[in-house]
Write a structure and sequence with these properties.
Elements (H helix, E strand, L loop, with lengths): L22 H12 L10 H9 L2 H32 L3 H28 L2 H13 L1 H14 L4 H13 L3 H12 L4 H27 L7 H21 L10 H19 L7 H17 L4 H4 L10
Helix pairs in contact: 1-4, 1-9, 3-4, 3-5, 3-6, 3-7, 3-8, 4-9, 6-10, 7-9, 7-10, 7-11, 8-9, 10-11, 11-12
Protein name: ribonucleoside-diphosphate reductase
Pfam family, one: Ribonuc_red_sm
Organism: Salegentibacter holothuriorum
Length: 310
Amino acid sequence: MNRQKPRLRDNKDRFIIFPVKHNDIWDAYKAIEANFWTSDKIDINKDLEDWKNLSEEERLLLHKVIGLIHHSEHKLNGKITRKLNKNIKLPEAKSFLDLQIVMENTHTEAYGVFLNSFLNSTEQEQVFKEIEGFPATTARENWIKKWANSSSFAEKLVALAASKSIFSYSSFAALFWIKNCGLMPGLSYTYEVIYRDKALHRDFATHLFNDHLLEDISDKKVQQIIDEALAIEKDVIFNFLPLDLIGLTKKALNEYLDYESNRLFTDLMVNRNLNEKESNKEKLLQQRAQKLSKTTSTDKDLNKISKNTD
């Protein structure tokens, strides 16, 4: 196949969305539209009670977790989306990415609500100083800048999928622990809907890459983008968040991240001929990941993109 330039362009004389020309992309847009939410739906009254009953160490962990995700949402994640949006002319795809930007703003606002509720201004300043001084923060910012400014549209798509799949997984693991403990229902609700949103955004980037892109990119380059993101997130696991405090071993989470990155690479592979060694590695990582986290309906059923739009 001649992979020279993106299909993500349209007739310049097409002024309205109807008739829809790309039903698969429009279905993806309608899926995130149906799941749109706002931060005013979050009820934190019970969370404030639960917060008082957490140990000092658990509160410090959540300081870092919420601060880290807020920092990522506020300063980093929207940059790739905006860069991609400038290069896309298809109305169906622009509709999705326009709404994705709005949703990313909602994520930032939601985590800001919790920061303002749980931490005073001095505590917030201390948390963000620590995050800004952490080497992985600079590494993540440089990674975003590098791939968001790439001249390759394909590389931007891979970077978007990687950022949604890999960044903040360690933080989400801590929030999953909170949810399983039956604590802080407002924060748990926020975790669930943002996790769902990120899965939809990741799946959309993967879908565009596989079905609507004609541009040369090697599997080696795809693997490089993913591996760089993976190394940064592992630095967070091993050197920033004390996840062992809540029974999440660094070894288990490390294996789960390996599984997620390998799954993403498999989804984005240009050359689909996996050798036996890689296939066996995929099966082993999947078995280990299943021990750490069960697949939920949020991750499995709600994020399917229908191809049956009339």
